[in-house]
Structures are given as C-alpha cells and as structure tokens.
Amino acid sequence: MDWLNLLVIPIIRSVVIIVVLLTGFAYLTWYERKLLARFHVRYGPNRAGPKGLLQPIADAVKAVFKEEIIPGHVDKVVYLLAPALALAPALLIWAVIPLGKDFPAVADVPIGFLWILAIAGVESYGVILAGWSSNNNYSLLGALRSSAQMISYEIPLGLFLVSILLLAGDFSLVNLVEAPRAWWEWLWLWIMFPLFFICILAETNRSPFDLPETENELVAGFQTEYGGIKFALFFMAEYISMITTSAIMATLFFGGYALPFGIGSDILPILGPFILAGKVIVLLFLFIWVRASLGRPRYDQLMGFAWRTLLPISLGYMIITALLTVFFK
Amino acid sequence: MPELPIPIPPLPTLHESVFMAIALLTVVGAFLVVAARNLFHNALGLALTFFGVAGVYFVAEAEFVGVAQVLVYVGAISTLITFAIMLTRGMMYGATSPLNRQAGTAAIIAATVFVVMAGLLGSLPWPVAEEPIVDGQIVIANLGVGFVTEFVVAFLLLAVLLLVALAGAIVLAQDRK
Amino acid sequence: MVPLTWYLTLAAFMFCSGLYAALGRRNAIAVLMGIELMLNAANINLIAFWRYGVTPVENVDGQVFAIFVIAVAAAEVAVGLALIISVYRNRKTLNLDELDILKG
To answer: What's the whole-model pTM score?
Structure first.
C-alpha cells in the first residue's frame, strides 16, 4: 500500500496534469496568434478547421516530421539535454499548485511556497546550456544575457514572494488560498501585482524582456542552432512557463481555485480546477497584451531597472509588509 | 529445501531505494566535477551534485535546508560559476592538461583519506536516536525562532558579511579603465 | 530510516572528490568547485547528525549551521569569482601554475 500511495497515484496525477498542460500549450499558441491578430486588425489563423482551431495540430505534425539536424560543431550531450531541462522546471512547479479544496495537483507539501522559489531559480539552465553547447557567439551572448537577467530579476521576485509569505504566515499554498484575508491585505497585495508581473515577464523571457532571443541582434540567441522538435520543446517550455506562472499568480493574488467571497466552493469542489483555468486564461491575456503593446528595452536598461528600481522598491515593500503584519495581524 | 549458505539480504525499503538513487546521482555529479576535461561539464556536474545533495536533505526531512540548497547552490552559485566560465572562455581551448603537477599525489591523498574515513565510519558504533518528525512546519518554525533568539548575533553578522561580500565583489570585478 | 553511515559515506566521498579537485586541478574555477564540494560534504554531515540526534524537532542547531554554511559559501563564491574575473582580465590566464609573480 505504501508503494501505491507514494508512487502510483502521484504518477497518474502527474501524467494527467502533463497531458492537460500540453493541450493547454497547443491552444495557447492559437490563443496568442488570434489575439495578436486582433491587436493588429488582422484575422490570424483561419484555414485549418473552424476558426483555425486545428492550427496547433498542423503545427505539431510539421515539427515532428521535420528533419532532425544536429550541427557538427555542437557539444552533443549538452545540446540534446538543454531543451528537456528548459521544459522540466515549468512542469515541476505544478506539483504544489492547489487545484481545489483538499485536492492539490500532486502533493500538499508543507513547503509548497519555497518549492516555487527554488524551481524558479533552476529555470535558467535550459537557456544557459543551449547557448553554451551551440558553440556559437550569438548563442553564447544569449545565454550570458539570460543568466544575468534571471539572477537579477529573481532577487526582487524573491523579496515580493517573501512579503506574500509574511502576510500569509504559512508555507502551504492550500492554506494560503483557504485562509481569509482582510480587505487591506488584498489591496496591499494588488498594489504589488504589476511589479510582480514585471519580474515574471523577465523570468519567463517573454516580450518585452525577451533579450536572450532577440531575433534582430542575436539571430534568436540561444535557439539559433535548434530546429524541428528540439525547437518545439523550447517553444513549449516558454508557453508552459507562461501557463505555470499565471497559475502561480492566480493562486497568490487572486484566490486560486476559489471564487470571490467564498461562493460555491463548498457546494461543488470539482469546480476548482475550472475556476483556476479561467483565472489563468485572463492572466495569459495580460502576457499577450503586453507583447502586442510594448517594445523591447535595451539590455542595460533592463538590468538597470532590476537593480536600481525594482530592488529598492521590493526591499521597501517587504519592510512595510513586515510592519503591517506586526501591527495589524 | 536446502539451506542457503548466505542469507538473502532484505529488499531495500522505499526510503532506502530513494536514498540510493539520489546518492548515485550525487556521486555521478561529483565524479563529473573532478574527472571531466571540459570545464563546462565540470560545472554541470557540480549543479547535478548540488541537486543530489538537496535530495539527500529532503530524504533526511530537512525540507527548508533542501530548498535553500536548490535556491542558493543550484539557482545562484552554479549559475554564477557557469557565468564566470563563459566570461573566461579563452581558458577552455588548448591542449594543456586540466591537471597540475601534483595531481598524482593529490589523487593518492584523496583516495587514502576516503579509505580511512570509510573504514572508520563503518567500524564506529554511532549512537543514533531515530525519532520521527510528525510535522515539518514545526521544525521550520523552530528554525526561524532559533535565528532570532539564540543565533541572532551570528545571523546579523551573516547579513553584514553578505553585504560586504556583495560590495567587495562589485569593486573587485569592476573594470577600472 | 536510512542508516546514518550511508549519509556519512556519501559525504566522505564528496569531500575526497573535492579535495582532489582543489589540490590537483589547474584552473582556478575548478579549484573553487572542489571547495564547494567539500563544503557540501560538511553540510550533509551536519544535517545527518541533526536528524539522528535527540529531539530533532526542538533542537535544530544542525540545520542552523547548515544554513550558515550555505550563506557563507554564497559570499565566498561571489568574492572568489570576482577575484577570478579580475585576475583573468589582468593576466589573461586562470592557470594557477602561471600565477606566481610573488615567487622570489
């Protein structure tokens, strides 16, 4: 029974979540292209199936049937390892995200919160490995940028997470969602949300902070030497981290799987995952909206913003949060 | 049924098999650090070892230290080391051996130390108290209380040390031209 | 539970690998990596002794020490790598055998 509870059930749950995420990834590309088309006053994909709904499947078939090319000058083992390492952290975070009351994705570990922080630190490896093993100056520049950018933005991100932790007073994400918050706590959290979202954009390498892969200066940076299904894995990693970080933000800032004012959560606990999915879709819209609206900053502006603006703000925010927690809770 | 000459050892429990898998990962990583010729492969081995050590902490139910290990060692220190390797990549190529003249002696010393230590470890009677930990959150709470009461001076000094190290690193690595 | 000696043997192996890397490698970064391995080995021992000591829930000193070691190692790596980059910029080499201008 030990083996069944510890291994078999979590494996089934993980497989289900991965399948859902992969489908989510496929339709996120469709969602993004449709939305970008709306922003540009175009139609977007509309040939494959009704409203272009079969487009992701066509893309997948194309990627799979492309010729597998491994350039001769690459460091082969690392080169093949990189796409897998890029994808793994985005999936690993899902182990602790609560999907419903008494229904965590895989496990309600007491340190769910720290898990997010730890895995966020590992996310840059795929990009670094890809850039290095490609053995190409542009790719290496992309990798250097990525590692510097991720480390820099992790610091304010970590400080903001610590502030949330101070307010919640609990490492468990399930308790974080379940515990009632006072109105000023919500307000104080939402004031911070835009800054947190900026850190998340930098961490997921999304536009406007996609400097590791700028196509016009670095010819796609770390992805230059990748094609076919290996490129598709990087693509997948980026989009699945968008979904994952949206789920994290929904859980931390917007009540996760619960409806506002506690409506209905006790009547139909099975609704939890769908409510979470709805919030994720709204947050994904934000990612795409930003991509369609903003241009890329220069690299020094990006780093300067992290160290000179975000870091002092996040430190100040943390101190004020600590004071608020001491005096009002 | 004839008696077996050697009794069959009991199958490893789930706990033990997890530990063995993690230990194997750690050992492979440590081996890569010392044996691979390419400096970048050394750094990847180092990251693997750090991850394995974090796994060992999780098996030992020290979750907070395990997460700190992933966050600091895998997330920051390994990334910094790969960063330094990329910045100094002129060192990477060339036919020179990665080992210096005293490598042979060093290998003998390290092997002797390991044999002596492993021999001692196996023969000593360690007094162990195997007490179960019911709620990991209480351990973390006690850890936090420890930092602000018993170890508060050391904790503050640590903060000063980190600040000084950060400033010092910036001054040292700055380009003065 | 896992026998205590397993932890200690793993730590001993890591310590000796680190010792070999610190003594026998030419590149300064590789030496730094060896030192990190040794620090981690010490940490495994601290955690193992904490877990197998009496009242691990109340008496968390082993974990406190492990955290101190992690933080000090972070400071050490930051300064060490800054030194390495600074040396590389001035001398264009990280070969420790060649960095001997103080030799009389």
So the answer is: 0.84
